Amino acid sequence: MSTWVLVALAPSFAWSGDSPDALRDALTKRLQALRDEAGCPGISAGITLDDGTTIAIAAGVADEADDSALTPEHRMLAGSTGKLLFAALALKSVEAGRLDLDRRVTSYLDASPWFERLPNHADITVRQLMNHTSGLVRYELHPGFLAELKQDPLREFTIAERVECLFDSPAPFEAGERFEYSDTNYVVLGAVLERVLEQDAYTAIDAQVLRPLALTGIVPARGIVIERLAQGHPAQDDPFTGGAGLIENGSLTLNPQFEWAGGGFATTAGDLARLVRHQFGAGGIPPTLRAEVVDGVDAPQLGPQTRYGLCCIVKSGPLGKTLGHSGFFPGYVSDARWFEDSAIAVAVQVNTSDFARLGKGTGWMVHELVRVVLESKTPPK
Questions:
Q1: Per-residue pLDDT averaged across 150-169, rounded?
Q2: What is the spatial distance between Cα 354 and Cα 40, in angstroms, rounded to a whole number?
Q3: 88, 111, 192, 342: which has the fewest Cβ within 10 Å?
């Protein structure tokens, strides 16, 4: 099963290769083959071309229980790709002079007793939150937090309740010493943003990013009912769910609110691709900050020859340099990348987090779809 939507974001289709119908058909065929090879329930993909046109396609099923078709209109919980939206808000705040990347976080959160109980609290800067060099480890995988979540999976957490499992614990390294990926960094960043903007972060993101870009397929994951959400299929050993499906009778069985600024959104793949294009290829990063965003620190946790900038995973591969982010939420995996050389953005979302079913992974899927686009631009010999 496969479906597609073509969304024109430019006055006319200016693609210099095959016709849009031929390209769409080729991408749909390849996506179906990727789904068959991976054996996952469903794959949704968004491909934004160099002229701004987005092709949104899907293959497979939204829910294995009823074999319902996955469509491009289905959303999936986007995991850490949602950090891009909090980072976009932070960069806008830096540009406006309301946030300083090298200012210590304690000067923004001096009235927050919970922050003073986190390791390295006196030394952490905003930059170190954004590039994961603060020394704050992951709260969401801490046994104490997982125990609380399993006891009441529908509860809503305050900022302090999310990170209290880390209170008064030693840091694994000094602030700024090295990279260690952690959602805790972005939860603290979210608290800083709300303090400096004097506004709910979701409200600010909606006003400053989502509405101006007409990204209606992206919505906050702040409750157990999310419209048009595909069923999530976790791995059997998933520490959050024990392998059970995420949706029962139209509601999530696990409240995604616990993730907040560590991710915090449900997206369509089409709008996720548009977001990545805007952020990395169409002026989303203030020009004065671009070098700092894309330079990055060594991030071996994320793969060989990988760097992490300010919410930017930087990789080099056979199709050139990519800028973007990946994401995991129980039952879902996302990967969104901007291909710098070809000016193509691709987002892939799958509705399973059972990595054994994904074979070569979502990064491979992203590259395969870009290959289809590049081949369509090459005249036959």
A1: 97
A2: 9
A3: 111
Residue 173 main-chain phi, psi, to 5 deg:
-160, 165
What span, in angstroms and rounded, lies between the C-alpha atoms of 296 and 62?
36
Report the 3 state secondary structure along 136-168: CCCCCCCHHHHHHHHHCCCCCCCHHHHHHHHCC
Confidence of residue 3 (pLDDT cuts 50, 70, 90): very low
Q: How many CB atoms lie within 10 A of CB 174?
A: 13
**CA distance linking residue 69 with residue 49, whole number of Å:** 26
Beta carbons within 8 Å of 98's beta carbon, 6+ residues apart: 196, 197
E strand spans, 162-208: none
Whose structure tokens read 């990348």? 337
- Sign of the Cα pseudo-torsion (198, 201, 207, 213, in order): positive
Q: What is the pTM of this model?
A: 0.93
Residue 197, amino acid: L
Which residue has tokens 């006196």?
122
What percent of the chain has a predicted confidence (pLDDT) above 90?
A: 88
